[in-house]
Specification:
Layout: H1 2-21, H2 27-35, H3 37-71, H4 76-103
Helix pairs in contact: 1-3, 1-4, 3-4
C-alpha cells in the first residue's frame, strides 16, 4: 500500500508542479498576471494547492476505506503521517512552482 500511496503523491505533485510552472496562454496574458503580481500569485498558489489537496484527500479517503473494509483495522497514526506528507509536498510544490513561474 505504501508503494501506491507514494506513486499517487508523486503523480499529484507532478500535476501540481506542471500546472504551476507552465502557462497555457498568450504572452500578453502572462504579462497581465505579472502586472497584477501580488494578487495573481496568491490566486495561482491557492488554486493549485486546492487542486492538490483534493487529490490528497481522495487518497486519504481511499486508504481509510481500504483499511476499514478490507483490513478491518484503521491505523490513525499512519493516516495522519500520510496526510502530513501529502499535504506538505503538494503545498511546497505549488509554492515553488508558482515562484518559478513568476521568476522566468
Amino acid at each position: 500500500m505504501k508503494t501506491i500511496n507514494t506513486f499517487f503523491i508523486v503523480f499529484t505533485g507532478g500535476i501540481v508542479a506542471f500546472f504551476s510552472i507552465f502557462w497555457i496562454g498568450s504572452y500578453e496574458q502572462k504579462m497581465k498576471l505579472i502586472d497584477e503580481l501580488p494578487l495573481s500569485f496568491i490566486y495561482r498558489f491557492v488554486g493549485l494547492s486546492a487542486i492538490g489537496l483534493v487529490f490528497i484527500s481522495l487518497l486519504l479517503m481511499f486508504n481509510y476505506l481500504f483499511a476499514k473494509l478490507i483490513v478491518k483495522d484503521v491505523n490513525a497514526v499512519e493516516l495522519r503521517k500520510l496526510a502530513i506528507r501529502g499535504f506538505v509536498s503538494v503545498i511546497l510544490l505549488a509554492l515553488f512552482g508558482t515562484l518559478f513561474f513568476f521568476c522566468i
